[in-house]
Amino acid sequence: MNAKFTLLALALILSACASGRLQERDEFATDDQRELILRATGANPRDAGLVIFGVDRSRQQAEQGGAGGGVSVNAFLWRATLETLSFMPLASADPAGGVIITDWYAPPNAENERFKAQAYVLSRQLRSDGVRVQVFRQVLRGGQWVDAPASAGTNSELEDRVLARARELRGLVAGR
Q: Helix 154-174 to helix 31-41 angle, to the nearest 10 degrees?
């Protein structure tokens, strides 16, 4: 009974803290910048956030390239990773955890091999160590798919492409 009362009191306190803070925000200077953010990250820059103890999470996330609506990793890295791996079929994507898993992809010019990728967006900031990509390769031998090593530079090459695209997206939003 005491635990239920405590949870109810906490819920009331949190809802009281958030009331009056759901008005529309104007965190970015122009409508063009808002539109670029919507296109580049899929996030709404006017989403209001919960303010607890005077900390405005939506403003912090916007400043760090994060987005509202459940994305707890850098939105530029997230979007860039999705775009970079878009040639492969998507098996699952968890924006809150920052994990993207593709399904097997067979290049048109290589019938006897296929690839799969797992990407991890590790940071809320746009940093060079904020994304990790791991590529898996299988070859067809005797009618069975057998694990084989992917080329040594594949993982780092995909990571570099993600980082370059994330910087482009950030530049679009900043109006550069």
A: 160
21/166 Cα distance (integer angstroms): 31
Strands 131-141 and 113-121: antiparallel
Per-residue confidence (pLDDT) for residue 174, from 0 to 100? 83
Integer CA distances (angstroms), 30 to 8, 36, 37, 173, 175, in order: 41, 10, 11, 11, 10
Distance set, CA 4 to CA 7, 13, 51 (Å) = 5, 14, 24
State the distance between the two ends of the chain, measured CA to CA, in whole angstroms.
Answer: 57
Contact yes or no for 158/137 (Cβ under 8 A): no
Q: What domains sit in the chain, N to C, each tagged with a CATH number?
A: 2-63 (no CATH), 75-174 (3.30.530)
In this prediction, residue 152 carries a pLDDT of 85
Beta strands 113-121; 90-94: pairing state? unpaired
Q: Which residues of the chain have pLDDT under 70?
A: 1-71, 176
Cβ atoms of 106 and 113 closer than 8 Å:
yes
Average pLDDT of the chain, as a whole number:
73
